Amino acid sequence: MAGAVERIAHYRILKRIGRGGMGIVYQAVDERDGRTVALKVIREAEAPGDESAAHLAEARMRFDREAAILKSLLHVNVVAFLEIGEEDGTPWLAMEYLDGVPLTSFAGRPWTETVPLLVQAAHGLEYLASRGIVHRDLSPDNILVIESGSDRLVKLLDFGVAKLFEKTTGLESLTATGFFLGKVAYGSPEQLGSLGHGAPLDWRSDVYSLGVIFYQVLAGRRPFEGKAPVEYIAAHLNAVPPPVAAPSDAPSLPVPLVRLVGQMLEKRRESRPASWREIVDRLVVVLREAGGVRLPAGIDRPLAGDAVTDATSGTEIVGVSPGIGLETLSPVGRPVHESRLLAWLAAAGVVLVLSASWWAGRIRPSARPVERRVPEAVATVVASATAAPVIPKLQAPVAGRLQLLGLPFARVVSLVDARSGNSVPLPVNATTPLLVTDLAPGPYRVVLAGPGPGGRTVERSVSVSSDATVLLSEPFATPGALAGLLTTGDAR
After folding, report:
1. Which ranges of 188-322 would DSSP assign to H, the alpha helix?
2. Percent of residues in the chain assigned helix, strand, coil, to nearest 5
3. Which of 15, 106, 285, 328 is exposed most, by the fewest CB atoms within 10 A?
């Protein structure tokens, strides 16, 4: 119900269709031309719960960010921006109204039916990357499918948490409170702190999140399931998902499709596909080999210009080189041309050795007296017997890592080595999620302070293991409050 709200500017409110952490979305009619729109507003009077001024200020910053990003976008797979304004202190943003269903509504259906939808989603994100944008809040609710007769159109929406990663926006502080807006079940390891404090996200974070969604659509379930946020977080940081497989009553998935989804879910972003164009192209190849499947219009062509290549060029050296398919790899995983080069070098080495031996035999003996030489093997034994004993070097213990997590977030007050009493250096005003690296194995004491000026402070003990990542999490909100954050992202 729209409550007391009947009109905003020249829009007549029909009904409220969603609400989230940063605003309320209405279905409305533009009285100038009768067009139905989605109208997003920030209304302090209807803000959920006891909202602080800081929260409202952050909501306004997110709102302005979404408007600025949407105004710069024009793509068939991205929700269309219409206009922005403010009336009586209430900012509003008008977008095209999308009467669709989440992408995961098609979960478990035959892959020949769902992969064309996945192609469109990847194509839309390819466009965002070409504009220097990381979405950062990908979830099924933010990827809608609109059906019109036999056609299905995929639309990306909700850019309140998106970020222009080629520019410094001054809004990086939003990542703490916005952590749960990017829903944990679909968050990338980078969003959960695997990069360490202050390291920037890039387009590869969206690749991981879309990989989770791909997995869910193709398999009918997510790669990781949990009953609490911390279980999802631990899985995204450490667990290896099983290869994606279709439900028992659906056709088996092609091997190239299984490989692609597995690569999108790699923990290290450097191991994921080298560009969005690679992802689109590999999906298109799967569909073409299936035969009889109609490709979305324009999908099999790169975007105009070189923007996509520029936006994703940072990892082009990772993975299989362009133009080299999996079928051209040698048994040991090298491209054929590399294997041939190694074989050529080996053969050349043999020729050089034989040539050297032949040339040595052609040299005339010297007039100098012939010296008796100790056979090389005997000389080696003698030298070994008379040499000083070799004392093996002691290997230093391999450093470990500590992943700190406060739910929803916390300030890291201190981290102390329990054996020496020395404090471990931390970033200024460090907050969770925080990854602390290069820690000597052993016991540590951690002090965390919860959100807000009077946030609860706790001290926890943890033992860091050699060459491993240890997770320490502390809830600073009730399970009900956390569940509410997870289920009420920015509504469409």
Report:
1. 203-219, 229-238, 255-264, 276-290, 307-311
2. 35, 20, 45
3. 15
Report the alpha-carbon distance of residue 236 to residue 191 in Å, rounded: 10
Which has the closest alpha carbon to 41: 91, 5, 98, 96? 91
The sheet carrying 469-475 orders its strands as: 434-439, 400-407, 469-475
Please work out, in degrees rounded to the nearest 5, the angle formed at the alpha carbon of residue 355 by the alpha carbons of 351 and 361: 150
**C-alpha span between 214 and 426 (Å, rounded):** 37
Q: Enter the pTM of the model.
A: 0.66
All domains of the chain in start order, with CATH = 7-97 (3.30.200.20), 101-320 (1.10.510.10), 400-486 (2.60.40.1120)
pLDDT tens, residue order, the chain (492 aa): 445 568 899 999 999 987 755 578 899 999 999 999 999 888 654 444 444 566 667 777 778 878 888 888 889 999 999 999 988 888 899 999 999 999 999 999 999 999 999 999 999 999 999 988 888 889 998 999 999 888 999 999 887 655 544 333 333 333 433 444 447 899 999 988 777 666 788 999 999 999 999 999 999 999 998 888 888 888 999 899 999 999 999 999 999 999 999 999 999 999 999 999 999 999 999 999 988 666 666 565 555 433 343 444 332 222 222 332 333 333 333 343 444 444 444 444 444 444 444 444 444 444 444 444 444 444 444 344 445 555 555 566 788 888 887 776 788 999 999 999 999 998 887 888 788 888 999 999 999 988 766 678 999 999 999 888 888 888 876 655 555 544 444 333
- Alpha carbons 124 and 190: distance in angstroms, whole number: 21
